[in-house]
Amino acid sequence: MTIDRKAIRACVFDAYGTLFDVASATARCQDALGEKTSRLSSLWREKQLQYTWLRAVQGRHADFWQVTGDALDYAMDALDVGDADLRRRLMALYLRLDVFAEVPDVLQRLRLSGMSMAILSNGSPSMLAAAVEHTNIATELDLVISVEEVGVYKPHPAVYGRATERLGLAPRQICFLSSNSWDAYAASAFGMQVIWCNRYGQRAERLPGLPEAEVRNLAQVPALLLAG
Fold first, then answer.
1. Quick check: 179 pLDDT over 90?
2. Where are the domains of the chain?
3. Under 8 Å between Cβ of 136 and 107
């Protein structure tokens, strides 16, 4: 499959792991976590995603802030890290995640091309507002769309449908970009054109959908979408 870039009117980005480096919160706490830093980061993220999926299939939605805290509690308990002050520090840092180094330049270049720019994320509105403000990328975005607008997490089709509604575009007029393989495939199955930002060297999924392109970081995206 190839990207039909002439059809694209908007770029829609996943937030966590795609624009925002979810490992940056734990990295700033290495002084307290020591050798457990990497393991806590991985387990926290793993449980965070699992809880979104499990809540979705149970029909027991809670916003991403609660899910993030519950996942952190699980990870800290599993690794015998019983430190309430550290928990508060980690949660506060999750509101001030770093962007990946290439993000500001890529967003600016795509926006200057005339495309609409948006985030579509599991994050709650307050979490996303904090992250966008902290990273100074608000001026490059037209919309920040939270799953709270539909009350269910990705990869439910209603989430991707909300992006088409808010942008007033057909699915094929949207280029969706995510570092999460399951998210990329689900957006493709919905009908969006998809670039999978495979930062973590994941294997291809055995799921409905097929991304039009795969890159290792967002710096490769302008060459795919912009003429000349």
1. yes
2. 5-21+98-225, 24-94
3. no
The residue type found at 68 is T
**How large is the average pLDDT for residues 2-10?**
95
In one letter, which amino acid is 79?
A: L
Model confidence at 227, pLDDT cuts 50, 70, 90, reads confident
Cα–Cα distance, 208 to 19 (Å, whole number): 24
Of the candidates 157, 154, 197, 156, the one whose C-alpha atom is nearest the C-alpha of residue 175 is: 197
Q: Does domain 5-21+98-225 have CATH number 3.40.50.1000?
A: yes
Superfamily holding 24-94: Putative phosphatase; domain 2 (1.10.150.240)
Residue 98 annotated to the active site: no
**Amino acid in position 150:** V
Q: Quick one: pLDDT at residue 10?
A: 98
Averaged pLDDT, 184-198:
98
Q: Would you say 73 and 87 are in contact if contact means Cβ atoms under 8 Å apart?
A: yes
pTM of the model: 0.96
The residue annotated as part of the active site, out of 14, 63, 98, 183, is 14
